[in-house]
Amino acid sequence: MRTFTLALCVQLFTVTAHAEHVLREFNWETVMANGAPPGVEVITKTPGKTYNRIRIANPSDHPLTVTLLTIEHPPIARATYALTGMVRCEDVNSKGYLELWSHFPGSKAYFSRTQAEAGPMQHLEGSCDWRPFVLPFYAKEGAAAPERLVLNIVLPARGVVHLGTVRLAQYRQGEDPIAVTAERDAWWGGRAAGLMGGILGGLLGGLGGLVGLLAGRGKARGFVLGTMKALFPFGLLMLAIGLVALTVGQPHVVWYPPLLLGILSAALPLLTLRQLRKRYEELELRRIQAADARP
């Protein structure tokens, strides 16, 4: 039991925080200084004050594709990079999307699109409040950097989309831009998840070791059995939190620690409580037999 508990606690503790390196941040008034494309309007809060937001409107039922941003010779030095920002939708008919084209030497070009059903790569449809978006690209390590990046928006039918500040970021090897972006709206981040997993997992592991030690010596029966009984509802609570977080689309660092803690806390009593009771009953029977055998 102690080995099993320790292994799961190590898994909990390995949840770590992500990071991103922002290379450039784009101000829409500067980007659109020479005039906005048809259907695009730069929104300012008050005259002379930058609000850094654009409004893209498709007033018809015909598809609209607009190039919003072109980045020549982006200063990308890592294999994984992304455009990130905030987006808001108003009565968007059909499924629109943001699109990032990465142009490489040799006339090679690849795209990323926000066409997922949920998360920061969710498509543009209906109405929604401000939410984060990400357009990632995963190149091979050592591959050439892109020569040009192009950000487009595609609206197949009527609708209005607001786009906030857009940032170009790059990521270390093994980091996922989607996970990093999703954590911004998470209930807690990777650091908090690591602390929760480390502290609660460590306490649970220590408690499991103490229970095994006391039960092996036949000591503190009330404490041991009471602890095992209390662990079960605690496990169900943590399991419920993890399942709710998973259902509503929270990132891995949110749902994984409580889900694993819940499974461990609920499983330990189910697997060991009967054996612990039997152990104490056997020890009690031995004491009675030893007492009866005395002259």
Describe the structure.
With 295 residues, the protein is of the alpha+beta class. The chain folds into 2 domains: 117 residues; 165 residues, Galactose-binding domain-like (Jelly Rolls), CATH 2.60.120.260. 40% of the residues lie in helices and 31% in strands. The chain contains 6 helices and 9 strands. Strands 1, 2, 3, 4, 5, 6, 7, 8 and 9 form a 9-stranded antiparallel sheet that branches. A hairpin with a 3-residue loop joins strand 5 and strand 6. Helix 5 runs antiparallel to helix 6. The longest helix is centred in the last third of the chain and has 42 residues. The chain is elongated and about 105 Å long. The N terminus is likely disordered.
Structural class: alpha+beta
- What number of domains? 2
Give the overall form: elongated
Can you count the helices?
6
Strand residue content: 25-35%
Cα-atom radius of gyration: 28 Å
Number of strands: 9
> Averaged pLDDT, please?
84
Gist?
The chain is of the alpha+beta class. The chain has 6 helices and 9 strands, in the order αβαββββββββαααα.
Quick tags:
single chain, 295 residues, alpha+beta, 6 helices, 9 strands
Layout of helices and strands:
Elements: H1 2-13, E1 21-26, H2 28-31, E2 40-43, E3 53-58, E4 64-72, E5 80-104, E6 108-113, E7 124-138, E8 148-155, E9 159-171, H3 177-182, H4 190-217, H5 221-247, H6 252-293
Antiparallel strand pairs: 1-9, 2-3, 3-9, 4-8, 5-6, 5-7, 5-8, 5-9
Helix pairs in contact: 1-4, 1-6, 4-6, 5-6
